[in-house]
Amino acid sequence: MAGVPRYDRIGVGYTTTRRPDPRIERMIGDALGDSHAVVNVGAGTGSYEPTDRAVVAVEPSDAMVRQRAPGTALAVRGAAEHLPFRGGAFDGAMAVLTVHHWSDPAAGLAELRRVSTGPVAVLSFDHIVHCRQWIVTDYLPEMAGLDLTCPPPAVIAQALGGGTVTVVPVPADCLDGFCHAYWARPEAYLDPAVQAGISVIARLPPETVHRAMARLENDLASGRWQERHGASLASGSIDAGYRLIVSP
What we know:
CATH architecture: 3-Layer(aba) Sandwich
Number of helices: 11
Order of helices and strands: HHEEHEEHEHHHEEHHHHEE
CATH class: Alpha Beta
Structural class: alpha/beta
Distance between the termini: 39 Å
Radius of gyration: 18 Å
Shape: globular
Strand order of the largest sheet: 3-2-1-4-5-9-6
Largest sheet: 7 strands, mixed
C-alpha cells in the first residue's frame, strides 16, 4: 500500500460521523478574518470550509474527494508539501486536523505561508495533552505512539512566521466525531463507525482496538468507568489538546 494516500485506506465512510461543529467552525471563520480567496489544504470532505468565500480545496485522497457534498469547493488533487499555486495566490489559508498526516510538516507549513498573503489558520493538537485523555490512558495507550512527528502548536506558529495559539474546547455534545469528541459519551466509542472516523484508532491493529473496546464495554457495564471519570461529566467542555494556530 506504499504511496497510497492514507485516507484512501481509512477514509471510506468518513462523513458518517465527521461533520463540522458550529462552535469550532466559528473559531476558524473568525481566524480567517476578511480573507476572500482561501485555500483549504488537506481539505478532506470539506468540513469547516467557509461558504461565504471563494475556496479552493487541496486533497490527495480520491476516497475523501468522492465524499465531498455537491456544491462544495473545487478540489484539486495535491499534497501540502508541493502546492500547485503561485506565491500569494490567496489571501487566506486553512488546514484542519491534517498536519499530523503530512509526510513533511515543515515543508507543508512553509507552503501554506507561501501561497497566502493573509491569515493562515491551522487546527492541530498538543500531543502531550492528547495523551492525557482517558481513551488513551485507560484503553488505547498505543495511540501515544502515533503522530509523533506532528509539530507542537508553538512550533507550527513559528513555522508560519509567528502567531497565536488558542485552546479549542471540546464540548460534551461535540458534533464532529474526532478522537476526543466523545469524552462525555464513552459508549459511542464502541460503534465501529465512530472508530472508523477517528484516524488514530483506524490506524491501529484491529485486534488491539477490539480488546480495548471490550474493556471499555465491561467498565461501562460494571460502573468502573463512571467511578473513574464520571465527575468530569459535570463539565460542559474539556481541553483535550486541540489548538487553533493563527498566523496573521
